[in-house]
Amino acid sequence: GAVVSQHPSWVICKSGTSVKIECRSLDFQATTMFWYRQFPKQSLMLMATSNEGSKATYEQGVEKDKFLINHASLTLSTLTVTSAHPEDSSFYICSAPPRAPQYFGPGTRLLVL
Amino acid sequence: AQTVTQSQPEMSVQEAETVTLSCTYDTSESDYYLFWYKQPPSRQMILVIRQEAYKQQNATENRFSVNFQKAAKSFSLKISDSQLGDAAMYFCAYRSARTSYDKVIFGPGTSLSVIP
């Protein structure tokens, strides 16, 4: 079946640094990918919609300058957390909707010290 | 805007017994998809079952079945013969069927424990 991968699976960084997370669709093309954030014991909250060849669409309350999204190709979207702070520590999940249902990546755990 | 509600933050079931997880949603659309996703401790989202709104027949997948009540906007998940591996967070989710690229909206989740 369709597979979505994420890299890295785990990242620890110092406060103030930037972190890049990659999301790849392995056996299908995805003109659209979604980025979610999940805090412990909470649900997935959509952060932004990544669109190949155009600007990402951010959900209300998400800082676009802090969470930079680049959808460089039909199989790759990247999320860069700029100037990360401890409150950005979370679990980040991407998904791609070739059709219903969506396929989810395994997630990236980010810990900002 | 569409919303998804799960009124049971935590549930428990005895192994081999049956449990039902509740979900209600709100939408003004007539064509949409509903899903139940399982998130085990690994946190990988796993699709359990899906239901197309235009289908009256309730979806089933082995031990998992749903009770879809479109007029009541209710979408409950029944797990039969519960197994230890069923212990996880379960999320009810909604997606519009307008396009292939609509976002999925998740409910707050229900944590299911299975008692040996």
Structure description:
The complex is a heterodimer of chains A (113) and B (116). Chain A has 113 residues and is mainly β. In chain A, 0% of the residues lie in helices and 51% in strands. In chain A, a hairpin with a 6-residue loop joins β4 and β5. The termini of chain A are far apart. The mean pLDDT of chain A is 92. Chain B is mainly β and 116 residues long. Helix content of chain B is 0%, strand content 53%. Chain B has strands at 3-5, 10-14, 19-21, 24-26, 32-39, 46-52, 60-61, 64-69, 74-79, 88-96, 104-106, 110-115. In chain B, the strands form 3 sheets. In chain B, strands 2, 5, 6, 10, 11 and 12 form a 6-stranded mixed β-sheet that branches. A 4-stranded antiparallel β-sheet of chain B has the order 3-9-8-7, with no helix packed on it. A two-stranded antiparallel sheet of chain B has the order 1-4. In chain B, a hairpin with a 4-residue loop joins β8 (64-69) and β9 (74-79). The mean pLDDT of chain B is 95. The interface between A and B is medium-sized, with 23 and 22 residues.
